[in-house]
Specification:
11% of the residues lie in helices and 50% in strands. By secondary structure, it is mainly beta. The strands form two sheets. Strands 2, 4, 5, 6, 9, 10 and 11 form a seven-stranded mixed β-sheet that branches. Strands 1-3-8-7 form a four-stranded antiparallel β-sheet, with no helix packed on it. Helix 1 (101-107) packs across helix 2 (109-115). The longest helix is centred in the C-terminal third of the chain and has 7 residues, at 101-107. The relative contact order is 0.30.
Length: 130
Amino acid sequence: EVQLVESGGGLVQAGGSLRLSCAASGFTFDDYAIGWFRQAPGKEREGVSCISSSDGITYYTDSVKGRFTISSDNAKKLVYLQMNSLKPEETAVYYCAADNQITFRTLGPEATMSLGMDYWGKGTLVTVSS
């Protein structure tokens, strides 16, 4: 069974840091790009970051560049999102999702995130207090 399980969410003060983890199983990890999304209360789901570890390519939405870092441990089938200098408006449920590398390699990471992912986790809540 395909599973993506997020962890690491919690309560943090503005300016603080959290590291989210996404544990993948049930599919060929190296054949997929893994993305992080977030959905804040009353807002649409937003693509935050994406990684193709086999290709050595990462992507970040403009609002998190310089503050967030995505990385992967392919042997452990884990993807991380290190989030620094968090802002209250970044309070959201954060999801990880997987998409086949074909889309990533042909259309790029932004298109991959916007067109839809193959598999989704259930999310982890990040609350940033002011």
